[in-house]
């Protein structure tokens, strides 16, 4: 198992959101986040931002699909 | 040889989408229209340099993205770069964290999110807007901006981290 530093896990968290990590690195990020006092909050916040941007994108695509704007 | 009519048809078919992309990049609807218009003029002037094996709409899109980057870079201040460097330092500090509830509350305000996007460096904003708001792959952003793929991915990571910090109000 790869042991990650906080900085490494925080960088890889972005790739994790995009599903771009190998299973091994995914497990390493999970393991780090589970045992870290600071990274889980950062990851939850990053996930919330990512979901909001996705929601805005879907709204825009629906608007374009309906022929508005 | 690319005809003027073919190019104009392509410009008009992409104008709406590219104007919205530029508006997200520049946080300024009027300037976004100017950028797309300037890109159209550049494309028309450079029409004879167009290689017939390339896709004309992708070529115009690339001109537009690079014009947008130029404008964003000109507007970016030294202060903007220093603040970005400070945020990167925070994320390297193992003791740094944020309150995710504060971020969730901030996300309820479109104004806060737009303000946070506007505070990113131009290349971070390019990566986040194109990837997360426009649905492009990192590889497509790299191909259209001329930036290496690892650089695009790095801007995307730093941009997302910076949004968290800005929305949490911790920098």
Task: Describe the overall structure.
The complex is a heterodimer of chains A (69) and B (171). By secondary structure, chain A is mainly alpha-helical. Chain A has one domain. Chain A has three helices and no strands. The model of chain A has no long low-confidence stretch (mean pLDDT 90). By secondary structure, chain B is mostly helical. Chain B has two domains: 4-75, Rna Polymerase Sigma Factor, Chain: A (Orthogonal Bundle); 78-168, Winged helix-like DNA-binding domain superfamily/Winged helix DNA-binding domain (Arc Repressor Mutant, subunit A). Chain B is built from nine helices and no strands. Chain B has helices at residues 4-26, 29-45, 56-75, 78-92, 100-107, 110-119, 122-133, 138-145, 149-168. In chain B, helix 1 (4-26) runs antiparallel to helix 2 (29-45), helix 1 packs parallel to helix 3 and helix 4 crosses helix 9. The longest helix of chain B has 23 residues, at 4-26. Chain B is elongated and about 60 Å long. The N and C termini of chain B lie far apart (53 Å). The A-B interface holds A 5-7, 10-11, 14-15, 17-18, 37-39, 41-42, 44-46, 48-50, 52-54, 56-57, 60-61, 64, 69 and B 16-17, 20, 91-100, 103-104, 107, 113, 128, 132-135, 138, 153, 156-157, 160-161, 163-164, 167-168.
Percentage of residues assigned to helices of chain A: over 70%
Domains of chain A, number: 1
Q: What is the N-to-C order of secondary-structure elements of chain B (H for helix, E for strand)?
A: HHHHHHHHH
The total number of structural domains of chain B is 2
Largest beta sheet of chain B, briefly? Answer: none
Name the structural class of chain B.
Answer: mainly alpha
């Amino acid at each position: 198992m790869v042991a990650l530093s906080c900085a490494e896990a925080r960088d890889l968290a972005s790739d994790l959101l995009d599903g771009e990590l190998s299973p091994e690195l995914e497990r390493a990020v999970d393991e780090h986040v589970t045992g870290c006092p600071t990274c889980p909050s950062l990851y939850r916040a990053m996930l919330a931002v990512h979901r909001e941007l996705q929601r805005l994108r879907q709204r825009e695509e629906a608007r374009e699909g309906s022929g508005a704007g | 040889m690319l005809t003027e009519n073919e190019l104009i048809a392509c410009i008009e078919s992409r104008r709406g989408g590219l104007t919205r992309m530029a508006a997200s990049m520049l946080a300024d609807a009027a300037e976004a229209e100017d950028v797309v218009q300037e890109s159209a003029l550049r494309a028309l002037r450079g029409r004879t340099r167009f290689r017939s094996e390339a896709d004309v709409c992708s070529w115009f899109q690339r001109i537009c993205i690079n014009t947008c980057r130029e404008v964003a870079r000109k507007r970016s201040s030294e202060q903007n770069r220093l603040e970005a460097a400070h945020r990167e330092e925070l994320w390297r500090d193992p003791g740094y964290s944020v309150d995710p509830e504060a971020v969730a509350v901030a996300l309820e305000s479109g104004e806060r999110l737009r303000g946070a996007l506007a505070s990113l460096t131009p290349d971070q904003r390019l990566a986040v807007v194109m990837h997360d708001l426009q649905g492009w792959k990192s590889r497509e952003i790299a191909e259209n901006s001329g930036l290496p793929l690892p650089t695009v991915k790095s801007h995307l990571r730093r941009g997302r981290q910076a949004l968290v910090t800005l929305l949490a109000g911790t920098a």
